[in-house]
Amino acid sequence: MDHTRPIFAVDYRGLKDPGLMEAATDMRHAIEEHNAPVLVLVTFDDSTYVTRNFMQHAEKESGAVMHLIERMAFVGLSPTKKIILNGYNLLFRRHFRAFDTQEEAIKFLLG
Questions:
Q1: How far, CA to CA in Å, does 57 sit from each of 7, 8, 25, 110?
Q2: Three-class SS of residue 3?
Q3: pLDDT (0 to 100) of residue 1
Q4: Contacts of 11 (CB under 8 A, 6+ apart)
Q5: Mind listing the pLDDT tens digit for each residue in 89-98?
Q6: Which stretch of DSSP H or E encloses residue 41?
Q7: Are residues 110 and 73 in contact, defined by beta-carbon separation less than 8 angstroms?
Q8: Structure letter (DSSP) for residue 67
Q9: In DSSP terms, which residues pair with 9 in a beta bridge?
Q10: What residue segments make up the domains of the chain, in order of their start?
Q11: Whole-angstrom Cα distance, residue 104 to residue 99?
């Protein structure tokens, strides 16, 4: 396992707009400041309400640092959100993965 790449975590649990957008922007700033390849762990829960505005904002923010994101894993997505993630992957040619547990996600990131 490669432990030289840090895992940057963004926790969207319980957030709503504008908190979701602030968290996405904070993540972009942290990755830009690091300015080297990173792994990203994103956590949601059932209370996280994802709006179209947030999705557009998240695409803009992640797009700005996509060249630095080696892998991105999501935890806590509902079945509907997993379908949306799969569509996002196809549309934007990404390879983000959804996992049921944080342990599975970290194993994927470090694997």
A1: 22, 18, 8, 27
A2: coil
A3: 44
A4: 23, 43
A5: 887 777 889 9
A6: strand 38-43
A7: no
A8: G
A9: 41
A10: 7-110
A11: 6
Q: Using the structure block, give the residue that is written with the tokens 């922007």.
A: 25
Laid out side by side, the sheet with 69-75 consists of 7-11, 38-43, 69-75, 97-99
Q: Please tell me the pTM assigned to this model.
A: 0.88
Distance, in Å, from the CA atom of 3 to the CA atom of 94, rounded to the nearest integer, reads: 23
Q: Which residues contact 78 (CB under 8 A, 6 or more apart)?
A: 46
pLDDT digits (tens, 9 = 90+) for 67-87: 999 999 999 998 988 888 888
CATH (one of 2.40.50, 1.25.40, 3.30.750, 3.30.1490) for 7-110: 3.30.750
Q: What DSSP state is assigned to residue 23?
A: H
Tokens of 54: 């947030």
Structure tokens at 72: 């991105």
